């Protein structure tokens, strides 16, 4: 992923429990114009800005209490929307399962490929730019699946990480099941959790092959073997694409949290938003702070210029993201309906929008 030096505009998608808002700004990213709500009164747990084509296509994974989940897309920045035919992503006949939410939308490496992660825990693949999806059946029928649990928010594949140069390799994560990887295009999937602690398990059983409550995983396309992971208690790094993990939580005020994102141009720079698990799942002292490491987790720095000092809400697993400007932007959305933007990799922050419903996901890109 290179710096988009010629990009003059920025798009920010904000998915909430009651619809989607789409913001645009110039490269300074200080003033924003928002439209919305799109998909009013529908839960939007996933969205995507796909800039692989000549013009951006934006996606929203929306769920209606009456009509169920649906993947919608727009080729005109949200002015009009289309949706997958037949009512959205659906399990094959006889599966005895139905999709409740679309938790993740991710672009693949090959042209036209888009992945979706759903609740219940399944991964889907589209080869026509998100217009139709097929089930990754080997993962859905995995022998370990009967022992996967459901996290507090439900059982869902919330992370999908296609390898940046190998279309046959994809890493995924589920709560609660852990990290899995395919290297043969989905024909088989292997657990990749060695070294990740499951603190809720009894002593002597806290490092199982699978069953960890992984909250989010990320990696950088320039160094794809390096992964960063936020767990339910623990922050980790892998330098061998998930074969083994080591803790990098030392220096953080808490090792619980939901999001983890990597700088778009610096593989050693990673951001987290720690929460105290035992104190209502808000930041230490009720102060909103992003923590950044510039040495792959060896040391951490607190960033908070412009963020509120009175903050007693959480930041969800997909409510933190980065854009791909030369001067990287970082974005944080909170459960109080506010989104903060930093145009300088976390050094300073301004409020992009507030008074929205509960924020579940934010996604940004230059175009």
TrEMBL record:
SUPFAM superfamilies: Oligoxyloglucan reducing end-specific cellobiohydrolase
Domain of life: Bacteria
GO biological process, one term: xyloglucan metabolic process
Signal peptide (UniProt feature, chain positions): none
Gene3D superfamilies: YVTN repeat-like/Quinoprotein amine dehydrogenase (2.130.10.10)
Matches recorded under InterPro entries: WD40/YVTN_repeat-like_dom_sf, Xyloglucanase_GH74
Protein name: BNR/Asp-box repeat-containing protein
Taxonomic source organism: Nocardioides psychrotolerans
